[in-house]
Amino acid sequence: MSSDPSTLVYTANHEPVEIRAATVLPARRENVELRTEDGQTLVGEIALPARGEPRATLVTLHPLPTHGGFMDSHVYKKASYRLPALAGIAVLRFNLRGTSSPRGTSTGAFDGGDAERYDVEAATEWAMAQGLPQRWLVGWSFGSELVLKYGAVPPVADRVEGGILLSPPLHRAGDADLDRWAASRKPLRVLVPEFDDYLRPEEAARRFARVPQAELTGVDGAKHLWVGERFVQRALDEIASTVLGEPVRLPATWSGPTAKGS
């Protein structure tokens, strides 16, 4: 998909169509720039429901940029393709400092999770300033470390409802960060693949026991990168259910216009 959302070409469908990996459903999409307190500019995109106001908002934090993570990491890209239309959820994606994608390159340099604190603060501040409701941090792999390190402390804690973690490795985030989440009493949803490369469900349950409100689910058959459409669907169902506060099973077909993404 082009980095310019206005270039998407939608095709009318007279019958329901299967939602595939590259299926883009209608939404209001806009390229955005986020400014950090330490002077960096982060490039990203907001995807909003095509009609009406969003019911909830995802502020997504991507996997490790030194290992290929960026705003277009596939679970997040598919979230932006689908969730505004299927669940009324707004999706904010952006490149952390020093990270490139077809959308562009965010200024600054990768800092191993330290200066990225300013990136998390800038994204949540922007989402709040836009009046986006029910803001949730969603972190995948390295992004989950940022959720744990900064999501339960001011100013971010005052701007978000809670956190959702995909494949948390618990490398950079430690027991002190988990204890801060416990003290915050903010909800924490944790999705751990059965065959994760770094942290598997049994060990994850032991580590996250420090956070009484954490709800942890082991996902049978899944791996760290959530490759495979059934695992993406599971992740998006769990994310939507968490932020909407009710069980959600997203439809696998769509009746209406679609575009084709990358």
Automatic annotation (TrEMBL):
Residues 67-200 form the AB hydrolase-1 domain. SUPFAM superfamilies: alpha/beta-Hydrolases. One of its GO terms (molecular function) is catalytic activity. It comes from the Bacteria. InterPro entries: AB_hydrolase_1, AB_hydrolase_fold. This is AB hydrolase-1 domain-containing protein.
